[in-house]
Design goal:
The structure is a homodimer.
Chain A (H helix, E strand, L loop, with lengths): L1 E6 L12 E6 L8 E11 L3 H4 L20 E8 L9 E4 L6 E5 L4 E3 L15 H14 L6 E5 L6 H10 L3 E6 L2 H8 L6 E4 L6 H8 L4 E6 L3 H8 L2 E9 L13 E3 L2 H6 L3 E4 L9 H13 L7 E5 L4 H9 L6 E5 L2
């Protein structure tokens, strides 16, 4: 049988485990041009919270009773396409389940010799590419500039900050625990970092750590942290809007201080993006990321939950910031 | 004697005439490399409201007792520089006074044969260039796209909307009176327009007039009008932040709905600018604007107050939206 996690109810505010259901279904059968994958790891990502709402965004919501959406990496156990053989490792959007069928053209073949296969969901997958294109193409950092990353210990933020270091920037990270601060300034090599949960004032802390102002802000969080950053941007600053996790579980939309005037004064740019904009260039991004990981210039951590039955709890934990680095579920 | 308007007090909220003072001073004497100008027209612009506050922005505030800052156009009555002769028409930052001395290198020679000299402060001056570079370089409109302009009957907005028409866009204007709506859809050739003061819902009115969504927004106003626009932006929309006149006279900063998530979903860009960024290209902008005015593709209106003593009242009226097109003060 194929164990799956489906959406049982649309959450109001923070999701609870009761919003999910563990069900069993027959193992699916691949048709021509398809492959059957036995998943090894599921990816848990903040964007999935949006899919639980009944609102059209850049993608359709998950239906009530539908399998939760998401990417996974696994072993091909049956192939009806010449591009894959049994035993190959494949990544694709199977959703939260133990077995999935993928169109071969929409699956990515993963070379298990390059790095652990789990990295295909993290530093060498969508989160790594999101950091790569978001920072380099939207943020366009220049050597010597100050780059601030919110969610700096997360799957995307940790990579964005390290790429900024590679490009010669001063990097300041923001996260929600002292352990994450140590991780950012130690293992990841950020120049400075702070714990927003214990900072008396985001603004004063940022002003202290960014004495020359902020040139690039890579935002995964939004809310009051982002408000403080806008007060410290330099002329011609670039604000990369990658995620807004502080806003995803609010029961009502939040109000905040208006800041458009600041953009005029500083001739600054704020730009949102989705990694899919850059899909023609994924190969280039993966080539650079793979090289940087091999050279030790990009380090990564994974938080791994065991068993598909624990996916909902791990997902909720990730929304609360309990993970460091990429949150995965091991289902092999 | 040289009559001047000085800043008597820093306004709290909306300025009053008591915040200004009419004083007399000796006519200044030009030094080497300078010219003495007898002003014909003073320019009144929303940005001057910011200069009345004691806060550092992209320019220094006007000191209490200092002459109000601003551009003017006038006749050279004494020249100590080979680049100007007596009788030439010159534009420059003399401030609100009848006579001013300018460094010849910072004055612009105006060809009175091309258009009325007052246009050097409007359609063929800073407001026209602001519209030109803001729309074309920041907004980057493509033929067939929908462009919304707030403050669409003002000195900058009217030009921005007409340039968007020249570029083949569908243009929707927003302003604060039915007469301005008629002006935009009649004389200026906008495709649609509405009076925000009588619209029951900015959002529903915009949705009705922009059935295909909004690709470019040229914002002179900010506040609730801009909030409504963000709800209707298309994928890859560009929001040009030129001015935020709805916010300049607030006693306390206003809160508004957060919209950064919308920028992700639509992969949209918001960018503030100052016309000075483009100063190396002013000649190119003026060449195009002059041609379009001559060809009748850009029309303009001026609201002219008579006498420097009426400058404060005209300025306050402009902040209230009483002008159509460029607000000037005739001092000749």
């Amino acid at each position: 049988m194929n164990r799956q996690i489906t959406l049982a109810a649309r959450p109001s505010g923070f999701p609870t485990e009761g919003d999910f259901r563990l069900v069993e279904a027959p193992v699916p059968v691949p048709g021509e041009g398809e492959i059957l994958v036995r998943n090894l790891y599921l990816s848990l990502d903040p964007y999935m919270r949006g899919r639980m709402n009944d609102t059209k965004s850049y993608a359709e919501p998950v239906a009530i009773g539908g399998v939760m959406t998401g990417e996974a990496v696994g072993r091909v156990i049956e192939s009806k396409d010449a591009r894959f053989r049994e035993g190959d490792i494949a990544a694709g959007m199977t959703g939260w389940q133990e077995y999935g069928v993928l169109a071969a053209g929409e699956a990515r073949k993963v070379d298990a010799g390059v790095a652990p296969v789990s990295t295909a969901l993290g530093v060498l997958g969508m989160p790594g590419l999101t950091a790569y294109f978001g920072l380099l193409e939207i943020g366009r950092p220049k050597a010597g500039e100050t780059v601030v990353v919110s969610g700096g210990a997360g799957a995307v933020g940790a990579v964005a900050g390290q790429i900024a270091k590679i490009k010669g920037c001063r990097v300041v990270g923001i996260a929600g625990s002292d352990a994450k601060v140590d991780y950012m300034t130690g293992e990841l090599g950020f120049d400075a970092a702070f714990n927003y949960k214990t900072a008396a004032s985001y603004y004063h802390k940022l002003a202290e750590l960014c004495p020359g102002g902020i040139d690039v802000y890579f935002d995964n969080v939004g809310g009051a942290i982002t408000d403080a950053v806008f007060r410290l941007i330099n002329d011609r600053a670039r604000v990369v809007i990658c995620g807004q996790i502080s806003q995803y579980n609010l029961k009502r939309p939040e109000m905040g201080p208006r800041f458009l005037w600041t953009l005029i004064v500083h001739q600054a740019r704020v730009e949102g993006f989705l990694v899919f904009q850059f899909k023609e260039r994924y190969e280039e991004g993966l080539r650079d990321l793979t090289r940087w990981v091999r050279e030790g210039k990009i380090r990564y951590r994974e938080s791994v939950a065991e068993g598909i039955e624990n996916a909902p709890r791990a997902f909720i934990g990730m929304l609360r910031g309990e993970n460091t680095g990429k949150q995965l579920v091991k289902v092999g």
